[in-house]
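A reminder before we start the practical. When you read a complex entry, don't treat the lines as separate problems. The point of joint prediction is that each chain is placed relative to the others, so the output describes one connected object in space. Small molecules and nucleic acid strands, if listed, are placed in the same frame. In the example below there are two entries. Take a minute to note the order of the lines before looking further.
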Amino acid sequence: MLLVDDERDFVDTLSKRLLARDYLVAVAYGGDQALEIVARDGCEVMILDLRMPGMGGIEVLQRIREEGHEVEVIILTGHGGAKEERAARALGAFEYLHKPADIDKLVDAMQRAHAKRNERRSAP
Amino acid sequence: MDDPTNPLKYEHRPTSRRAAAPSLAPRRYRRLFRRVALSTAGVTILPLLVMTGINYYQYQRAIEAETRQPIASQTTNAQRAVEFFLKERESALRFIVKQGTVTLDCNNAQLAKNLGSLRTSLSIGSFVDLGVIDATGRQRCYAGPYKLLGKSYKGQDWFHQVNQRGIYISDVFLGFRKSPHFVIAIRQEGAGGAFILRATIDTKELSEQILTIGLRPSSDAFLVNREGVLQSTSRNYGKVLDRCPLKVPHFTKGALVIKRTDRKGDVFLGYAYIENSPFVLMLTKRSEEVMGGWTSLRAEMLVFLGVSVILILMVIYFVSRNMVRRIREADVARAQVFHKMEYNNKLASVGRLAAGVAHEINNPLAIINEKAGLLQDRITLSDDDFPQEQKLLATIDSILNSVLRCSTITHRLLGFAKHMDIQFETIELDGLLKEVLGFLDKEATFRNIEVGFEIDDDTPSIESDRGQLQQVFLNIINNAFAAMDDGGRLEIAIGRQDDTTVAVHVKDDGMGIPSENLERIFEPFFTTKPGIGTGLGLSVTYGIVEKLGGDLRVKSEVGKGTRFIVKLPVSSPA
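Here is the predicted structure of the whole assembly.
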């Protein structure tokens, strides 16, 4: 599980709450950092913000696809309308959520993403 | 940098074209029409009038000149004839003196013989008598019907004149047998001295001859003396020795034609003074007869002028009116387009602002959400007991609730700014509206609101987006319900507006909208109920209708009700 967002306050708090719910969570504050972690350690589910300085969320998504990483990406953004949603889903985003998000909804989306990932892995 | 919360980013820059929008008041167009019509009429009619006037006067003068010419000739000829007549008589007298038959030493018998031969040789204007008068003015000899022998003319004016000039011709007088005569006297030197030979001449035949000069019954020719007494009988102006109504013109050497007016109208008067006599020859012809050609030409000209002027005025009136009408229509259309443009700009600006604000707020909102959630977690998930745990949790709950409320608001703001694609499908409007009414069925029944539904038979199905149309009508009907009292009536009418448009009327009998607000109800954030809602409903509705290629209008009267008119295109804008 990787949380990617440049808003540190937000992402730190969220990671604490997820940890309290027994999830293994890593944090990246930018797109480059995120890709680094994915390349180095792998990642099953990513919660990705769109608006980040430098490499934005869409670009991260693109690079993930290009580099062939198998990650389920849940977009969690305060910006973005239908256009961004379409673009993200076209790039294979699993879910598109708006901030502020209810923690339970988030957890639910994560679990589904995880399940999907397991499905893929077990499929021949 | 890119800070959408900065209102300056959305500052509306007015285009100079818009700044000069003129008024659409009917008064302005009436004035325009008057200006156009008057100036065109002036420019076309004035020259026409001037030209016609000039032509009129020129023709009149030319034709008059042409008319005068023959009259002048006739007058001159007549003048010569009369002068010749008088000269003939004078020569006759001089001849008999030259012959030597008449001298100062005269005798009556000889004179009578002379008279007789004069009478037979010159039958026109017969000599009535003959007399010899000596230098003292005493009648020496006489032949004729009067008893003038021995009479003295010493003091008389004519005697004086004949001595001075050598010849004298008198005015006409009623003489022998009450017929008109005149006297001609010549002074002769003879053996024995100067004497005067005086003769009286009958004018009857002269008079008649003169009259024949005027051939037409309305023409006239006659002699008058310088005091205006007729010397011959005129056809139209009286008998001999009557006063001629026409004033005698001043002396000129030859013949002259002038215009006079008599009791029947205008006449051309040709006149000539007869030499050595008191006579003035007058020849008259009626104006309307000799200028007959002119009167008909004049009438034609005036008729033509009249008809032309009327035609010109009519054409100018209709053309100007139509042109001004078209101008007005164009101005109105342009004003409408500008209004829409301006409105759309505003809408877009507000949309962008709203979206920007919403986006920016979402992040801090998310932080509050997570932090409060974290607090909640700490309390609920840990094993410790917290003092006043319930109260703490309640407080955190209210924080989270407020976050939720903010989130709803920002989502609505974002929804307002979102540009959704239109998914076209064929829609039967009556079905769609009945569906929408279905959503509000419960409220209608509960509040006793009567709903009337009418659809024209020839209403076509339209191509549009179902979901967005539902939103539009839901919004409008909701507004109507909100405005109505319980027991009110809502009327929905659907019909074909024209070949390409369908119109839906939603009419309520609620409280109505005051006219000063009518212009503003589609404005974003405009609401008459502060605190309730965002004031975005109708502006969103307006935006959707515009996007679908339609038109949304409202008519309202306070206390009576409101009518929303939604016009939609039958087919999607290509």
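Discuss with your neighbour: The CA atoms of residues 429 and 461 of chain B lie 7 Å apart. What might explain this?
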